[in-house]
Design the sequence.
């Protein structure tokens, strides 16, 4: 069995709900502002995507950002399997959610995922390093439109996952009002 050629797929997974409307501008990157987080999310160690205290988490490691593109690496762990030896699709979607979230927060406002769309292009083995990137395609009021991809083995390796998301700006209280403890 062969892996389908990604060249025959559409350029991105975006539906109309994750495509910025005409005229939506891409704002200047504001950089992570510690005042936005109030200690709630900045480098939150318990984060399943990036936290060091999440034992089975993805532990995404940011490798930098420039020109509006944030980059990270993710090494697929045994705890992240779906089929034997291969990453679970939901885990890969989580990695993309995290990446798009970072790209949104770099705009200098608080965002949460409203909608996440994912294309899975090829299987990703346990032990492989996924090279991830994400960027903003536009902002329209409270809505930010993000895109990203993950490539296997190298930044220019074969694409394994692509995502598009709609993130919605929320007030600080969003992160405290529904907490159970
Ligand atoms: C340094 C920190 C780094 C952080 C990285 C974090 C990465 C991880 C990110 C996450 O996973 S966040 C957790 C998962 N997401 C959530 O828990 C969000 C749960 N949903 C909500 O809280 C609310 O539904 C939400 C804040 C998204 C929207 O509710 P609101 O009442 O504030 O707004 P509203 O429903 O009026 O929607 C605002 C606009 O967004 C649109 N919208 C909202 N959800 C949508 C959706 N799913 N699809 C399409 N459009 C959507 C909606 O139509 C509307 O468009 P218009 O302004 O044009 O009318």
Sequence:
């Amino acid at each position: 069995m062969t892996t389908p050629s990604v060249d025959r797929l559409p350029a991105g997974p975006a539906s109309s709900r994750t495509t910025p409307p005409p005229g939506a501008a891409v704002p200047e990157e504001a950089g992570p502002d510690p005042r936005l987080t109030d200690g709630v999310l900045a480098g939150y160690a318990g984060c399943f995507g990036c936290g060091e205290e999440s034992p089975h988490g993805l532990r995404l490691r940011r490798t930098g950002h420039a020109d509006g593109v944030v980059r990270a690496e993710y090494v697929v762990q045994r705890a992240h399997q779906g089929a034997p030896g291969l990453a679970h699709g939901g885990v890969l979607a989580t990695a993309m959610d995290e990446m798009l979230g970072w790209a949104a927060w770099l705009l200098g406002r608080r965002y949460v995922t409203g909608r996440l769309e994912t294309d899975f292009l090829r299987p990703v083995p346990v032990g492989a390093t996924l090279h991830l990137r994400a960027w903003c395609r536009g902002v329209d009021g409270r809505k930010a439109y993000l895109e990203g991809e993950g490539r296997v083995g190298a930044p220019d390796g074969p694409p394994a996952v692509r995502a598009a998301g709609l993130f919605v700006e929320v007030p600080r209280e969003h992160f405290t009002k529904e907490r159970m403890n």
